[in-house]
Amino acid sequence: MFYKRKQPLILFYSSRRGGSTLLAQIMEAARSTVYVDQPFDLWKPNTDRGRIIASYLPYKQQSQFFELDEEEKKKVALYLKGFYQKKLLHLSTGKRAKHIVLKIVNAHGLIDDLATLIPSKTVALMRHPFSQSLSVMRNKWGTCESAFIESSNWSELYLSQDQLQFAKKVSNTGSYFEKAVLNWCLEWHFPLHYSNTEILRLYYEDLVLNGTTTITRLYNYLGFKEIQNGVDVLNQPSKSSNFSTKATIEGIKNNNKNTMISSWRSQLAEVDLVNGQKILDAFNVTVYSRFSDTPQL
Fold first, then answer.
1. Which residue positions in the chain have pLDDT lower than 50?
2. Among 26, 64, 72, 261, which residue's Cβ finds the most Cβ atoms within 10 Å?
3. Domains of the chain: which residue ranges?
4. Which Pfam families does the annotation name (predicted)?
């Protein structure tokens, strides 16, 4: 079937190891929907896919997109237009589709800009930063906080001097865990405190604990009808579950929801909890804290 009427792109923001693949698969379960995995990823320029992406996008330190000059904005607009016109479907999970989801994990600071460049709907999925950070560490992935700190324009616009100095201290002398939490805070700083875009804000913990309700909200927002298709995805490990702990995978299979959202507590010492909370406090993050496994809304 061919779809002549163009549908708005679905700009979906999440963190690495933040539940992004799971929610992308839940959206993909809707009729004629595909997703593009990390369309702003510049980490693999020597692959066919990487060369295509690099041909459209400007270079950014550590592949972190949070500010654009006018020429860069034109390049990104052309890139988004390619998806909107379905000319870049070969980068997605399917060849034909009515709805296209862009699964974005490294361009949160552009959440307002991208919404103005192309007809779109915006979805954001957040996960407790302590849990997400531990998953990054378990996979031995690097942190990207330095890209934000070293951008004088961005830091002057969005960070106080105290926040900037604190970020530099954590980046220079903090533990792996502390740097990962800082990365989370800087990544979400603009969407949490400055964005004016209409965003459907979802939370990984709600997805686990109240899946049907959360998926119903998502599908209604996007105009999708096959809600049960999305709910069915929750009972299966996501495509990225090989990056999860054995306990988490077993929790998914056995529907042990507590394991899925609270296992991070047994992996952190008191000093980690205290220092992690100091970082959240420094960047005015109130939706998550050391004192609760679930978001405080």
1. 1-3, 243-244
2. 26
3. 9-282
4. Sulfotransfer_3
